[in-house]
């Protein structure tokens, strides 16, 4: 997709290109920290960064922002690559790891020390907080601020060599302890951490802080537009200070600039990796890819298509103020996509048997039914029909109210693509539960015959008892009962808002035979029920499991 997007960052890029800034290059990056699986919020950032690059003849890098050794894992790196690709974006040969820059970043820190712009500080974390001041009160200079360049170089070198215990020393940028921006009050740029890193192993015991590593990684990669979420707006002066005060001779043309946009918040879900991780670790869900999760892997398993997620990201737009997006919009996007392309099929979730008394015992007919009335050329398929049929329990009422247009004693309905039938008798067990309906069919009314013109109000889906296949269906509801589960109340956290009824498993479902050959890439509309797909993890050829992607009813209000 190379259409020019409409958003304020595109406007900035358009101006920059006009002014031939950065030698008219557009180079963005998507920089996830590999400490969890990507979620739909990340999809917004992916679509924005790759989308802007694609639309402006630019490039977008995939960068693992892996400077924090204790939380990162290989599994997450792999899942991130899978998810970005699945969404339809390609970083080509530009996949980078911030950890690959550790040596370079170290040298940049040395440069700052040599220029008298960084110093080793021995204050404890608590002292440092005290010295830092507050929004209304200026900070105080650290007593270590005036160490000589030689002493700082020696100490920093020895920090790297592992001579000091963690927490005993840090490297700080020497900026301004009276700045109105707390981030500029001599921020820590390196800390001691004896931690194993997923890629560099035990080579390092000092690690750069995010605020130091991020702008300089952007500079190393020749990024032009570094797009991040609003919380980093206050960090921008530090970003600028670093890219201006470090001399990176490898910079081709121009320097990176940071721009902030509002992160995506979605109703009835949480969107932080930390919280999603808790849901997984505490078994509130079956994994990162649980179909109820707002992760990309969860949405994929649920049956969402990359097209629907990209469409969603386009519709929500890119703003400078935070807002809460209605989850119904996401559901609207997948419904629109699937309405256009999902094969219509029949599945009876809660079956009730019905016998057509006047239909020949051993006769089977194959009745043509449209695969998708919304899609030209999608053709017809033949669905087997016989004397015994399942319909939905909910489609029959013994004592119906006035406007019940489904089946009732003495009433007629049409079976989709088949005949008009009439209910003659209700069979019950000794407890009074309905076990079977005895009906008759009108042979003149088969779809396509002249007699089919006769009007009846209700049309029911059905499956032939002889040909139907048993399947499990999983019906999902929101994972949380509150629109903003994050809005924590006294004494409880977001977990108090978990919906205990977010999953219903129904094993009694009977589906038409074509569904036996469904693959994980197929999407179906189970007529009158919703959109479904095979569960890519649990479904087996002889033990089919279907996920309900979304119901048919659209609650999105434009
Ligand atoms: P989380 O709090 O979920 O861990 P994060 O920002 O710490 O999110 P990163 O892995 O650092 O996660 O994010 C990678 C990129 O994705 C960043 O550029 C970040 O701005 C962006 N991003 C993360 N969450 C959202 C969101 N909800 N909406 C839009 N962009 C997001
Ligand atoms: Mg982050
Ligand atoms: Mg985070």
TrEMBL record:
<feature type="domain" description="Glutamyl/glutaminyl-tRNA synthetase class Ib anti-codon binding">
    <location>
        <begin position="342"/>
        <end position="442"/>
    </location>
</feature>
<feature type="binding site">
    <location>
        <position position="229"/>
    </location>
    <ligand>
        <name>ATP</name>
    </ligand>
</feature>
<feature type="short sequence motif" description="'HIGH' region">
    <location>
        <begin position="32"/>
        <end position="42"/>
    </location>
</feature>
<feature type="binding site">
    <location>
        <begin position="263"/>
        <end position="264"/>
    </location>
    <ligand>
        <name>ATP</name>
    </ligand>
</feature>
<dbReference type="GO" id="GO:0006425">
    <property type="term" value="P:glutaminyl-tRNA aminoacylation"/>
</dbReference>
<keyword id="KW-0030">Aminoacyl-tRNA synthetase</keyword>
<feature type="domain" description="Glutamyl/glutaminyl-tRNA synthetase class Ib catalytic">
    <location>
        <begin position="26"/>
        <end position="339"/>
    </location>
</feature>
<dbReference type="InterPro" id="IPR020058">
    <property type="entry name" value="Glu/Gln-tRNA-synth_Ib_cat-dom"/>
</dbReference>
<dbReference type="GO" id="GO:0005829">
    <property type="term" value="C:cytosol"/>
</dbReference>
<dbReference type="InterPro" id="IPR014729">
    <property type="entry name" value="Rossmann-like_a/b/a_fold"/>
</dbReference>
<dbReference type="Pfam" id="PF20974">
    <property type="entry name" value="tRNA-synt_1c_C2"/>
</dbReference>
<dbReference type="Pfam" id="PF03950">
    <property type="entry name" value="tRNA-synt_1c_C"/>
</dbReference>
<feature type="short sequence motif" description="'KMSKS' region">
    <location>
        <begin position="270"/>
        <end position="274"/>
    </location>
</feature>
<dbReference type="InterPro" id="IPR011035">
    <property type="entry name" value="Ribosomal_bL25/Gln-tRNA_synth"/>
</dbReference>
<feature type="domain" description="tRNA synthetases class I (E and Q) anti-codon binding">
    <location>
        <begin position="459"/>
        <end position="535"/>
    </location>
</feature>
<dbReference type="InterPro" id="IPR022861">
    <property type="entry name" value="Gln_tRNA_ligase_bac"/>
</dbReference>
<feature type="binding site">
    <location>
        <begin position="39"/>
        <end position="45"/>
    </location>
    <ligand>
        <name>ATP</name>
    </ligand>
</feature>
<comment type="similarity">
    <text>Belongs to the class-I aminoacyl-tRNA synthetase family.</text>
</comment>
<dbReference type="InterPro" id="IPR049437">
    <property type="entry name" value="tRNA-synt_1c_C2"/>
</dbReference>
<feature type="binding site">
    <location>
        <position position="65"/>
    </location>
    <ligand>
        <name>L-glutamine</name>
    </ligand>
</feature>
<dbReference type="InterPro" id="IPR004514">
    <property type="entry name" value="Gln-tRNA-synth"/>
</dbReference>
<dbReference type="GO" id="GO:0005524">
    <property type="term" value="F:ATP binding"/>
</dbReference>
<dbReference type="InterPro" id="IPR020056">
    <property type="entry name" value="Rbsml_bL25/Gln-tRNA_synth_N"/>
</dbReference>
<feature type="binding site">
    <location>
        <begin position="271"/>
        <end position="273"/>
    </location>
    <ligand>
        <name>ATP</name>
    </ligand>
</feature>
<feature type="binding site">
    <location>
        <begin position="33"/>
        <end position="35"/>
    </location>
    <ligand>
        <name>ATP</name>
    </ligand>
</feature>
<dbReference type="InterPro" id="IPR020061">
    <property type="entry name" value="Glu_tRNA_lig_a-bdl"/>
</dbReference>
<keyword id="KW-0436">Ligase</keyword>
<keyword id="KW-0648">Protein biosynthesis</keyword>
<dbReference type="GO" id="GO:0006424">
    <property type="term" value="P:glutamyl-tRNA aminoacylation"/>
</dbReference>
<dbReference type="InterPro" id="IPR000924">
    <property type="entry name" value="Glu/Gln-tRNA-synth"/>
</dbReference>
<keyword id="KW-0547">Nucleotide-binding</keyword>
<comment type="subunit">
    <text>Monomer.</text>
</comment>
<dbReference type="Pfam" id="PF00749">
    <property type="entry name" value="tRNA-synt_1c"/>
</dbReference>
<dbReference type="GO" id="GO:0004819">
    <property type="term" value="F:glutamine-tRNA ligase activity"/>
</dbReference>
<feature type="binding site">
    <location>
        <position position="210"/>
    </location>
    <ligand>
        <name>L-glutamine</name>
    </ligand>
</feature>
<dbReference type="InterPro" id="IPR020059">
    <property type="entry name" value="Glu/Gln-tRNA-synth_Ib_codon-bd"/>
</dbReference>
<keyword id="KW-0067">ATP-binding</keyword>
<keyword id="KW-0963">Cytoplasm</keyword>
<protein>
    <recommendedName>
        <fullName>Glutamine--tRNA ligase</fullName>
        <ecNumber>6.1.1.18</ecNumber>
    </recommendedName>
</protein>
<dbReference type="InterPro" id="IPR050132">
    <property type="entry name" value="Gln/Glu-tRNA_Ligase"/>
</dbReference>
């Amino acid at each position: 997709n190379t259409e020019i997007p409409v958003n304020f960052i595109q406007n900035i890029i358009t101006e920059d290109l006009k002014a031939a800034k950065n030698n008219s290059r557009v180079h963005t990056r998507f920089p996830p920290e590999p400490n969890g699986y990507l979620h739909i919020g990340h999809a917004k950032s992916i679509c924005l960064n790759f989308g802007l690059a694609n639309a402006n003849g630019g490039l977008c890098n995939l960068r693992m922002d892996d400077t924090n050794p204790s939380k990162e894992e290989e599994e997450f790196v792999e899942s991130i690559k899978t998810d970005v690709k699945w969404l339809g974006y390609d970083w080509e040969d530009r996949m980078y790891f911030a950890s690959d820059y550790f040596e370079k970043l170290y040298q940049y820190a040395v440069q700052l020390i040599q220029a008298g712009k960084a110093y080793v500080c021995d204050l404890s974390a608590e002292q440092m907080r005290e010295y830092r001041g507050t929004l209304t009160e200026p900070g105080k200079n650290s007593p270590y601020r005036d160490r000589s360049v030689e002493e700082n170089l020696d100490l920093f070198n020895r920090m790297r060599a592992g001579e000091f215990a963690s927490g005993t020393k840090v490297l700080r940028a020497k900026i301004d302890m009276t700045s109105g921006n707390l981030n500029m009050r001599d921020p820590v740029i390196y800390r001691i951490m004896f931690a194993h890193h997923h890629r560099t192993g035990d080579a390092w015991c000092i690690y750069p802080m995010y605020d130091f590593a991020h702008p300089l990684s952007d500079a190393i990669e020749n990024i032009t537009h570094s797009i991040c979420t609003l919380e980093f707006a206050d960090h921008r002066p530090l970003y600028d200070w670093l890219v201006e005060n470090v001399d990176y001779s490898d910079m081709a043309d121009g320097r990176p600039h940071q721009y902030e946009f509002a992160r995506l918040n979605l109703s009835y879900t949480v969107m932080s990796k930390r919280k999603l991780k808790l849901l997984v670790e505490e078994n509130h869900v079956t994994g990162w890819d649980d179909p109820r999760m707002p992760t990309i892997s969860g949405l994929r398993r649920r049956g969402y298509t990359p097209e629907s997620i990209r469409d969603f990201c386009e519709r929500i737009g890119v703003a400078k103020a935070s807002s809460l997006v209605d989850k119904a919009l996401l559901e609207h996007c997948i419904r629109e996509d699937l309405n256009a392309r999902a094969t219509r099929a029949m599945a009876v979730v809660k079956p009730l048997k019905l016998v057509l008394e006047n239909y020949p015992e051993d006769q089977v007919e194959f009745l043509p039914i449209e695969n998708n009335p919304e899609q030209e050329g999608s053709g017809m398929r033949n669905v087997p029909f016989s004397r015994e049929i399942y319909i939905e329990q909910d489609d029959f009422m013994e004592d119906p109210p006035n406007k019940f247009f489904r089946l009732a004693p003495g009433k007629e309905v049409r079976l989709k693509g088949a005949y008009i039938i009439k209910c003659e008798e209700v069979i019950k067990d000794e407890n009074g539960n309905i076990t079977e309906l005895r009906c008759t069919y009108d042979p003149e009314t088969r779809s396509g015959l002249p007699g089919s013109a006769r009007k009846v109000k209700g049309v029911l889906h059905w499956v032939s008892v002889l040909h139907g296949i048993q399947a499990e269906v999983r019906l999902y509801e929101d994972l949380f009962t509150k629109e903003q589960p994050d809005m924590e109340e006294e004494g409880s956290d977001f977990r108090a808002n978990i919906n205990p009824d977010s999953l219903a498993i129904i094993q009694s479902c009977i589906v038409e035979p074509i569904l036996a050959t469904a693959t994980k890439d197929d999407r179906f509309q189970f007529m009158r029920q919703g959109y479904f797909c095979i569960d890519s993890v649990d479904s087996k050829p002889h033990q089919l499991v279907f996920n309900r992607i979304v119901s048919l009813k659209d609650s999105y209000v434009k």
